[in-house]
Amino acid sequence: MQVEQISVFLENKSGRLSEVTAILNESNVNIRALALADTSDFGVLRLIVDDTQKTISTLKNNGFTVGKTHVVAVEVADRPGGLHEILTMLHEAEINVEYMYAFVRTSGDNAVMIFRIEEDQKAVDLLQSKGVNVIDGERLYSL
Amino acid sequence: MIHDIEYETMPREALESIQLRRLQTTLERVYASVPFYRKKFKEAGIVPADIQTLEDLSKIPFTTKQDLRDNYPFNMFAVPMDNVVRIHASSGTTGQPTVVGYTARDVQTWSKLMARSLAAGGAGRGDIIHNAYGYGLFTGGLGVHYGAECLGASVIPVSGGNTKRQVVIMRDFKPTIITATPSYALHLAEVAEEMGVSFESLNFKFGVFGAEPWSEQMRQEIERKLNLVAVDIYGLSEVMGPGVAIECHEAKKGLHVFEDHFIPEIVDPKTLEPLPYGSAGELVFTSLTKEAFPVIRYRTRDITSLNTEPCVCGRTLVRMNRVTGRSDDMLIIRGVNVFPSQIESVLMDIEDVEPHYQLVVDREDNLDVLTVNVEVGERGFTDEVKGLQRMERRITKNIKELLGVSAQVKLVEPKAIERSQGKAVRVVDNRRI
């Protein structure tokens, strides 16, 4: 149930982000999801790509500081209240969500949310026990 | 290993009588041949014969960097140019470079003192020395070079720059000793890692690092990354070049000054009064055997203290402690004295912080603002913004607690801070007073 996410440290300088996308373009990497967290001085760019290993080595070779984390991809009913239900389940089980963002593609009729959760195994077990569909990496990259 | 047993372990009384004799000879010479010194002595109302004991040294006026600049290029030479076989210039990190000269005997003396230094640092005849100090007007490269040859070791004159090629040389020639600036050593380690060459697979035993101040924490980092024992070497071109003082690898606690060739003093930087052993102050040198370019009570602007405790290595030469900063790369930020090396200590004490930093000082609305740019490497990078912010805050807090100065911390990308091939540029001071 692991989904690999890449994080890249970016100084808040103009052009840094487009340098990353230029590099990915040259290596023929397809971005599946992207989120950018920013402070006034720097940003952390989070990416889900179709070839995690290649992306990490290419970015590192180009002098970027890169990390790899595991996130959970969850199917969410595409209607008002869909997300709220998932969050309520997690809250009741006292599982903390670090951050989350939406995935570009849908899974059938459902929306897909990416969650970063410290206790990810616990969260996966809980959600599945409640009939929520958790999507694994392989499937996610090809959606 | 002690290269020159007779002089390096000489009993103090014998050493002091040699010092006095050599001092008197030097004073007679400079009085006779260097107009600058004769004028200074006359202004102070003294003649060389007034110096009858080592304590009388304090009667003599000081020589400063400005004096050397005012006599640029050759006006303080004590011999005709025909006798000068080598000319060097200081690297000028703080202003206009100063020029120094050497007779053939000076070059020989320098080589012997460098041989002593390399030996104290762990080198011997059978060693292969990778010399990454810059060759040229800078005294580092040629200083080590001649010392290595005098010692009988095999020196590879790599010089600075061309880092990838240096890694290939290290991998193929398997040198056992490395000589470089501490900041360049860390850069070499970085590039070696990128090229897949591990220091565990290399043959380094010892490294002799200097030409810039570096902290105890940086020593530990270098020893860990380069897999060797690291010692500090001290010198300045105005006095001779590297080889004025050297840390022995046996103790690694202070640098032995070659007192048979240089008399060290510590003076109060404000009052210029000599201070007793153990007190911290400005380091002053008087050369005893230099022919072409002797210096009398030269103010180095380096801050340190002298330690007379007997050393386990057996040398009887006084030790100077690590130079904590120069009195002129000291910053004054909102009235607080700050040395870049102090910031370095704070950074190196925090786990996960890389040793690549730069201080930028600005004046905004009439107030000094200190920004510490710190590179974020693999070690320190966490996916969560709050983790990075936590690191920023920790650095700010530690700087405030230790130094009493508020600094803004800016995390920057790897290599955002320029790597220098010589001394690292630690401070960018944008203030215009």
Keywords:
heterodimer, A: alpha+beta, VC0802-like, 2 domains, seven-stranded antiparallel sheet, 33% helix, B: 433 residues, alpha/beta, GMP Synthetase, Chain A, domain 3, nine-stranded mixed sheet, four-stranded antiparallel sheet
Summarize it.
The complex is a heterodimer of chains A (143) and B (433). By secondary structure, chain A is of the alpha+beta class.
* Domain unit count of chain A: 2
Structural class of chain A: alpha+beta
What is the CATH topology classification name of the largest domain in chain A?
Answer: VC0802-like
How much of the sequence lies in strands of chain A comes to 35-45%
CATH class of the largest domain in chain A: Alpha Beta
In CATH, the architecture of the largest domain in chain B is 3-Layer(aba) Sandwich
Tell me the structural class of chain B: alpha/beta
Q: Indicate the CATH class of the largest domain in chain B.
A: Alpha Beta
Specify the overall morphology of chain A: globular
What form of chain B results from the Cα inertia axes?
Answer: globular
Sheet with the most strands, sense and barrel status of chain B: 9 strands, mixed
* DSSP strand tally of chain A: 7
Tell me about this structure:
- The complex is a heterodimer of chains A (143) and B (433).
- Chain A is of the alpha+beta class and 143 residues long.
- Chain A has two domains: 66 residues, VC0802-like, CATH 3.30.2130; 72 residues, VC0802-like.
- Chain A is 33% helix and 36% strand.
- Chain A contains five helices and seven strands.
- In chain A, a hairpin with a 3-residue loop joins β2 and β3.
- The radius of gyration of chain A is 16 Å and the shape is globular.
- The mean pLDDT of chain A is 90.
- The model of chain B has no long low-confidence stretch (mean pLDDT 91).
- Chain B is α/β, with parallel strands linked by helices and 433 residues long.
- Chain B has two domains: 327 residues, 3-Layer(aba) Sandwich (Rossmann fold); 99 residues, ANL, C-terminal domain (GMP Synthetase, Chain A, domain 3).
- Chain B is built from eleven helices and 21 strands.
